[in-house]
C-alpha cells in the first residue's frame, strides 16, 4: 500500500487535549460562516506586512491559508495565516515581538509539530506558527490550491461548513471536529489525484 507523504490518520482531539493546548482566555462566541468577502486578501496582506516588519529575518514564510484564502468559498470571517520560522519551539525568537505587535498566544501544542496559535483582533486573524519542514503547512497549501481550482469541491465544502455552523457551535474546535470527516475525505481525494506521489485510499474509521 502506498501512502502520500502528507497523509495523516483521521483523529479528533478530545476535550482534554484541547484544554491542555489552550493558553489564556478563550471567549465562547457563536461560530458564523459567511459568503466570501473581497476584503480578505487585503486583510491578509496587512497582517503579512505586520509580521514581516515585526520579525524580519526570523520569517521563513508567510502564507494565507484556510477558507478566506479561497475566492468564492464561504468561511468564518477570520483570516488564517501560516507563519514558518526556523524553530517554533524557540518561543524567545518570536513570541515577545509578536506580543508587542498585538498578537496574543492562545494555543501551544508541543506534540503537534510544535504548533503555536496567536490571535490578532484587528483584522480578526489566527496566526499559526510552525518550524521549517513541518508537514501541516504543506498540507494547508495543497488543500487551498485544490479548492481554488476545483469548483465542485469548493461548493461541497461550503455546503458542509454552512450545515455545521447551523448547529450553533460556540467553540471553534468543536466546529472543526464536526467538519473534520469531510476534510479528511477531501484530502484522500487530493492525495489520490496527486501525480507526484502514489497513494492508496485509506478510508477513515468513524
Question: In brief, what are we looking at here?
Answer:
By secondary structure, this protein is α+β, with helices and mostly antiparallel strands. The protein is built from six helices and five strands, in the order ααββαβββααα.
Task: Walk me through the structure.
The protein has 206 residues and is an alpha+beta fold. 39% of the residues lie in helices and 15% in strands. It is built from six helices and five strands. The chain has helices at residues 15-21, 40-55, 95-100, 135-149, 151-165, 172-193, and strands at 61-65, 79-85, 104-109, 115-120, 125-131. The protein has a five-stranded mixed beta sheet, sandwiched between helices. Strand 3 (104-109) and strand 4 form a beta hairpin. Helix 5 runs antiparallel to helix 6 (172-193). The protein is globular and about 45 Å long. The model has no long low-confidence stretch (mean pLDDT 97).
What strand line-up does the widest sheet have?
A: 1-2-5-4-3
**Derived structural class:** alpha+beta
Proportion of residues in helical segments = 25-40%
Give start-end ranges of low-pLDDT stretches.
none
Shape: globular
Helical region count?
A: 6
Distance between the termini: 21 Å
Taken in chain order, the helices and strands follow as: HHEEHEEEHHH
Cα-based radius of gyration, to the nearest Å: 17 Å
Strand content: 15-25%
Structural topology:
Blueprint (H helix, E strand, L loop, with lengths): L14 H7 L18 H16 L5 E5 L13 E7 L9 H6 L3 E6 L5 E6 L4 E7 L3 H15 L1 H15 L6 H22 L13
Parallel strand pairs: 2-5
Antiparallel strand pairs: 1-2, 3-4, 4-5
Helix pairs in contact: 5-6
Amino acid at each position: 500500500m502506498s501512502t502520500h507523504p502528507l497523509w495523516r490518520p483521521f483523529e479528533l482531539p478530545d476535550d482534554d487535549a484541547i484544554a491542555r493546548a489552550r493558553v489564556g482566555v478563550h471567549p465562547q462566541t457563536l461560530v458564523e460562516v459567511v459568503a466570501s468577502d473581497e476584503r480578505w486578501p487585503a486583510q491578509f496582506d496587512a497582517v503579512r506586512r505586520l509580521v514581516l516588519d515585526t520579525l524580519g529575518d526570523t520569517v521563513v514564510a508567510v502564507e494565507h491559508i484556510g477558507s478566506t484564502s479561497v475566492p468564492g468559498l464561504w468561511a468564518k470571517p477570520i483570516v488564517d495565516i501560516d507563519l514558518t520560522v526556523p524553530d517554533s519551539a524557540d518561543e524567545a525568537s518570536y513570541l515577545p515581538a509578536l506580543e508587542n505587535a498585538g498578537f496574543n498566544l492562545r494555543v501551544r501544542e508541543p506534540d503537534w509539530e510544535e504548533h503555536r496559535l496567536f490571535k490578532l483582533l484587528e483584522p480578526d486573524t489566527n496566526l499559526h506558527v510552525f518550524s521549517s519542514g513541518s508537514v501541516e503547512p504543506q498540507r494547508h497549501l495543497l488543500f487551498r490550491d485544490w479548492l481554488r481550482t476545483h469548483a465542485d469541491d469548493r461548493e461541497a465544502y461550503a455546503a458542509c461548513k454552512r450545515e455545521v455552523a447551523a448547529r450553533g457551535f460556540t467553540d471553534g474546535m468543536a466546529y472543526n471536529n464536526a467538519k473534520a470527516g469531510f476534510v479528511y475525505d477531501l484530502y484522500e481525494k487530493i492525495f489520490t489525484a496527486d501525480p507526484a506521489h502514489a497513494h492508496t485510499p485509506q478510508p477513515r474509521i468513524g
